[in-house]
Amino acid sequence: MTGTFKPLVFSGVQPTGNLHLGNYLGAIRKFVALQQDNDCIYCVVDLHAITAQLVHDDMRSQIRSIAAAFIASGIDPRKHIVFNQSAVPQHAELAWVFNCVARIGWMERMTQFKDKAGGRNAEQVSLGLLAYPSLMAADILVYRATHVPVGDDQKQHLELARDIAQKFNIDFKEHIRATGKGIDIVVGEEPVHAYFPMIEPLIGGPAPRVMSLRDGTKKMSKSDASDLSRINLLDDADTVAKKIRKAKTDPDALPSEVEGLKGRPEADNLVGIYAALADKTKADVLADFGGRQFSVFKPALVELAVEVLAPVGAEMRRLLGDTSHIDAILRDGGERARARAEVTMNEVRDIVGFLR
């Protein structure tokens, strides 16, 4: 059989810490846009959350918070699937098969693993931290998803997922053909009889790189000790306004050209945030505010940020006030996800040769 895999978008967010403006602009708002023209599965990846920190006192509340952010931002859980990863055991089952397909050297080359386990830490980190790219590949491929929205920090893991899919297809090519479950696709210039698709990244234009409001050289982070460094999605309008007013700046007026932002990280960050919230370019923003002081620009940014974010935060608070509603959405999504995942796993069991 020759053809193409049915387009399907998959992505997930870890339930660790409060979601902030960077998460919203860099990921969640893209998820909302993608659902307009795609079949989408959005997952709260709670199994991934225990790779770096095993014990979480607030795991359930964090899972619900991520799900609430998805829905409050505009993701439709009736047309698409929203669920938490641990509700679908097929993720872990396929990850074990992929652990046996992948090679240790592949895992050890992952930049994030080397960053977290480098030097003296190598013997102290969990096996899960080494192996979690296999689970990430399973998250995507247990639904035979074809597209994943990615940022710069996930491109390497997506390439590894492609390598795992390709090695599975090659190692089991005769078994795939015997079960009649694969299709002929072209990988590079070579025809391959494949069961798993070659996942494609969805870049979707340059992602806004949202930096700390206290230090424009550092990414906005959930783990920053200062709450003034970030805008949380659950912040109310007054808190958003206060944080923007207190955001670090420099004494000069805004430039009229983007080139003038070089060497001015805080100015560049605030202009970038305004541009992302307004769906404009930095050049557009500077055409309006070039030559003006921050005393003029900050109030305009406050007004825009409150206009965009206040409805999201308010809806999140409403949803989290009735956790039974969030739980029902996750339960329904988990049931629908399990049904899809079990189709894949039954076929993988046949391809590998397990008796069922």
Description:
The protein is 51% helix and 8% strand. By secondary structure, it is mainly alpha-helical. It has a 3-stranded parallel β-sheet with strand order 1-2-3. The longest helix has 30 residues, at 323-352. The chain is globular. The two termini are 25 Å apart.
Task: List key phrases describing it.
356 residues; 13 helices; three-stranded parallel beta sheet; two-stranded parallel sheet; mainly alpha
How would you summarize the topology of this molecule?
Elements lengths: L8 E5 L7 H14 L5 E5 L14 H15 L7 E4 L5 H12 L2 H5 L2 H7 L9 H15 L5 E3 L5 H17 L1 H7 L3 E5 L2 E5 L5 E3 L34 H10 L18 H14 L3 H8 L4 H27 L2 H30 L4
Parallel strand pairs: 1-2, 2-3, 4-7
Antiparallel strand pairs: 5-6
Query: Which runs of at least 5 residues are low in confidence (pLDDT < 50)?
Result: none
Assess the beta-strand content as a share of residues: 5-15%
Helix content: 40-55%
How many alpha or pi helices? 13
Helix-and-strand structural type: mainly alpha
Strand order of the largest sheet: 1-2-3
Separation of the first and last Cα atoms: 25 Å
Query: Any idea what the shape is?
Result: globular
What radius of gyration results from the CA coordinates? 22 Å
Mean of all residue-level pLDDT scores? 91
State the order of secondary-structure elements, H for helix, E for strand. Answer: EHEHEHHHHEHHEEEHHHHH
Main sheet overview: 3 strands, parallel
Count the beta strands.
7
